[in-house]
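Data card: per-record layout.
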Amino acid sequence: MKLGYHLGYWGSGPIPGALESVLEAERLGFDSVWTAEAYGSDAFTPLAWLGASTSTVKLGTNIVQMSARTPTATAMSALTLDHLSGGRFVLGLGASGPQVVEGWYGQPYPKPLARTREYVEIVRKVLAREEPVTLDGQFYQLPLRGGAGLGKALKPTVHPLREDLPIYLAAEGPKNVALSAEICDGWLPLFFSPKADAFYRAALAEGFARPGARRTAADFEVPASVPVIVHDDVEEAASWIKPALALYIGGMGAKSVNFHHDVFARLGYADVSDKVQELYLAGRKAEAVAAIPTSLVEDTSLIGPAAKIREELAAWEETVVTTLLLRGDSGSLAKVADALS
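The structure for this 341-residue chain is written out next.
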C-alpha cells in the first residue's frame, strides 16, 4: 500500500509549513501530494506552487469542485499543471453538496451523477485533442445553444502532455462510487472503513461491469484520506479527530442532504449520526463532539501506539484502498511512516 500526503484546504489562511511538509513527504518516498478546496482557497494554485519545489511525487487535487469551473476551464488547468510537473498531475473531481454548489457557486445541484458524466466527457475530449470539442448535453452544450449564436467549436491550442491524464472521482454514495469505476481511473473515498469494504467493493464492481468501463479492479486507484496519529493514549488521539468528524457529520451539509452523515449511518452509527447532527445544527458543538464514540474514530482512522496501528493496518491492506493519504506536519510524517512500515 502506497502513502500519500493530503494537505487539504486552507483554514483562515495559508497552511503553516506546507512546503516543508511536502518536501519531507517526497524525501520519505511518498507517492503523492494532494490539495483541496471548499469555499476559500482553491486547489490548483497551492499545488502548482508546492509542485514547483518537488520532482518525484504525484500532484493531485482531492478535490476540485466541478461547480466552480466549466469543464473546459478545469481541463485547461489540468493540462497546464501536467506540463509544468512533467506528467505528475492527477485530476481529482467532486460534486460537493447543494449548500456549497448553490450557495457559494450559484450553480444548480440536481442530478449530480448525470452532470458528472457530461463534465468528465468534456474534460477527456479536451485532453484527447482529436477534434474540436462539442457536446449537446443536458447540462453542458459546446457550442452553447442560444446566446449570441456565434459560438464555435474549438480544441485546445496547447497539445496535452498526456492524453490519458488520470481522473479520479470523489464519491460517498454507492451510485457515485459505481460511476467512478465506470468513467474514471480512480476513486477518492472520504471516511473509509475496512468494515465497509464489501459495500464499496460491490459498488465498484457494478461500475467495472458496465459497457465501456475504462478500468478493472486490477488497474484502478483508490487513495483514501485516513487520519493516522501515533500516540500512547488512544482516547487523547481520538479527541483530536472528533471535532472534524462532528463538523462533517453534523454541519457539512443540510439536515436533509448530508452525504457524510449517511456514510456513518451505513457504518452502523445511525443513532450517533442523528444525535451529532441535531446537536451541531442547534449550535451545541461541544456536545456534538462529545457524542462521538472513540469506536467510530477507530473505525475510520489509525490511532494509538505504533504496535496497535501496525496490527490494525492489516485490515486496511485487505481492502480496495491502494494509497493511504496522511495528514500532519513535517515533524510527524516520519513517525507515522515508520509506524506504517
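Known properties of this structure: The two ends are 10 Å apart (CA to CA). The first helix runs from residue 18 to 27.

See the next section for split statistics.
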